[in-house]
């Protein structure tokens, strides 16, 4: 932390870094690579996912129900969520994203075997990378672990298709293990608790592996593992424009190595406006629960949301976490699915009141935002609104909410890296217009 004396250096931070909003308008600069109506500037083409949330007709953006397709397949169909005998799908979804086609049984078996074969971490890795100076945020350990796995790969600088696929498979396989080990390393360091280091059980799906390494008694039900599997599938991919995947694209376009690329993507996903929002939703909900006497009273809940929007409560950013999306307007299909499962799990249990509170936030926030800000955009709950709640009901600690997102999204990032390598062809390099006028004459030290 900087001392009081040093702080003087930062006094002008805001003034020096401010650019007038009018200048953005004057030069038609697309802030956040967004057009004036909020639609994204088209920055690339992809075959990997279709994220649909509006239609543009006569140059006008018209809100629409959300739709999400992986390689052309609707997520609803892929998950076959109504089937009583549904199997684990994350591996199938990861295969589809990486290889472009649904696997045959034989291809899937080979893919699962390849994932299984990669779970082991290099000798000494847990002690040096996970248990040493463990920071409180697991996302930072995921990033540094990925970055440093480079050191254990004799071909790390190779850019062949074979190496790219092998690296992606190895990271999809290892991230869940690193995540769980880090969770226990963190508890050992900050809470003086025992370090649990369950080994993975060969042959288990990713969801089962996570639960069996995480739970002290290693026990879980088939329904719990299927629920987690659905969550992994829902978080696996979201087009080229989401912040962490675009980060993947940007780094890949510079022709850097895969480890540096995925570490950067993890850093982006940690952001509270992106994957980190699932963590914020829970913290925000806890604050609302502490400050609102009757959780089922719309007026009370709306009044507290107004405080949040007016930057008087919670983290003072003015954001209601779990609400809003850059693409979705009427609905985020992932949130629809999460909510449905959350309801199934919560009704009739101690969680029901909390679930109803989340539903109230989802229903009330759009009108509160319009009322308090005087402007509004079509806004729905996003994937982060109910995901943390589902994890909580599965007994998954909040420290793991965003890391779980990273484990799942690893397959989407890899698919986009592959596509960028083959089809990108240009270093991503947008322009920044300099608004500083004229040249300043250099002033020597004695004259300043
Ligand atoms: C996995 C994911 O990444 S899903 C998204 C998870 N993130 C969150 O839940 C955080 C809360 N939501 C948000 O911050 C935003 O809605 C985002 C980042 C998801 C999308 O942002 P955008 O589509 O770019 O919306 P944009 O930033 O243009 O917002 C337009 C206006 O609505 C406001 N707004 C948007 N979302 C919210 C919100 N959840 N709460 C309050 N105000 C909001 C913005 O502050 C902005 O107001 P301003 O014009 O006064 O600055
Ligand atoms: O698409 C986005 O901007 C963010 C998002 O929902 C995701 O990455 O899953």
UniProtKB/TrEMBL annotation:
InterPro entries associated with the record: Citrate_synth-like_lrg_a-sub, Citrate_synth-like_sm_a-sub, Citrate_synthase, Citrate_synthase_bac-typ, Citrate_synthase_sf
Keyword Acyltransferase recorded: yes
Pathway: Carbohydrate metabolism; tricarboxylic acid cycle
Keywords: Acyltransferase, Transferase
Pfam families, alphabetized: Citrate_synt
Gene Ontology CC terms: cytosol
Record flagged with keyword Transferase: yes
GO molecular function terms attached to this record: citrate synthase activity
Biological process, per Gene Ontology: carbohydrate metabolic process; tricarboxylic acid cycle
Reaction(s) catalysed by this chain's protein: oxaloacetate + acetyl-CoA + H2O = citrate + CoA + H(+)
Active site annotation, chain numbering: 325, 384
Family, per entry: Belongs to the citrate synthase family.
PANTHER family noted in UniProt: CITRATE SYNTHASE (PTHR11739), CITRATE SYNTHASE, PEROXISOMAL (PTHR11739:SF4)
Protein name (record): Citrate synthase
């Amino acid at each position: 932390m900087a001392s009081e004396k040093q702080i003087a250096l930062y006094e002008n931070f805001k003034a020096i870094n401010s650019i007038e909003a009018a200048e953005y308008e004057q030069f038609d600069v697309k802030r956040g690579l967004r057009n004036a109506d909020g639609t994204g500037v088209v920055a690339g083409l992809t075959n990997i996912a279709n994220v649909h949330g509006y239609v543009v007709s006569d140059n006008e953006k018209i809100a629409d129900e959300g739709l999400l397709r992986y390689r052309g397949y609707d997520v609803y169909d892929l998950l076959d969520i109504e089937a009583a005998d549904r199997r684990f799908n994350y591996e199938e979804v990861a295969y589809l994203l990486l290889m472009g086609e649904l696997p045959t049984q034989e291809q899937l078996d080979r893919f699962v075997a390849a994932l299984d074969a990669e779970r082991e971490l290099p000798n000494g890795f847990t002690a040096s990378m996970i248990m040493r100076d463990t920071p409180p945020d697991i996302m930072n350990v995921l990033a540094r672990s990925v970055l440093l796995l480079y050191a254990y790969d004799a071909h790390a600088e190779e850019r062949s298709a074979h190496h790219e696929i092998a690296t992606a498979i190895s990271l999809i396989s290892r991230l869940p293990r690193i995540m769980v080990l880090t969770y226990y390393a963190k508890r050992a360091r900050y809470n003086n608790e025992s370090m649990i280091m369950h080994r993975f059980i060969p042959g288990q799906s990713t969801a089962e592996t996570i639960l069996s390494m995480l739970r002290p008694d290693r026990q879980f039900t088939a329904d719990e593992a299927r629920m987690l599997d659905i969550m992994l599938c829902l978080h696996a991919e979201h087009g080229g424009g989401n912040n962490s995947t675009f980060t993947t694209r940007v780094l890949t376009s510079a022709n850097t190595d895969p480890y540096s690329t995925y570490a950067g993507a993890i850093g982006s996903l940690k952001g509270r406006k992106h994957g980190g929002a699932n963590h914020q939703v829970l913290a925000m909900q806890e604050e609302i629960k502490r400050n609102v006497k009757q959780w089922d009273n719309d007026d009370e809940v709306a009044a507290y949301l107004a405080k949040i929007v007016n930057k008087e409560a919670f983290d003072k950013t003015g954001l209601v976490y779990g609400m809003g999306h850059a693409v979705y307007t009427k609905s985020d299909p992932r949130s629809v699915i999460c909510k449905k499962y959350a309801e199934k799990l919560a009704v009739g249990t101690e969680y029901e009141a909390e679930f109803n509170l989340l539903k109230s936030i989802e229903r009330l926030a759009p009108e509160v935002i319009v009322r308090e800000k005087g402007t509004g955009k079509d806004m729905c709950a996003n994937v982060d609104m109910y995901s943390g709640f589902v994890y909580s009901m599965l007994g998954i600690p909040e420290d793991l909410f965003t890391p779980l997102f990273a484990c799942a999204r690893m397959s989407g990032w890899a698919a986009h890296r592959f596509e960028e390598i083959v089809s990108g062809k240009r270093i991503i390099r947008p322009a920044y217009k300099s608004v500083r006028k004229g040249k300043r004459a250099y002033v020597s030290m004695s004259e300043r």
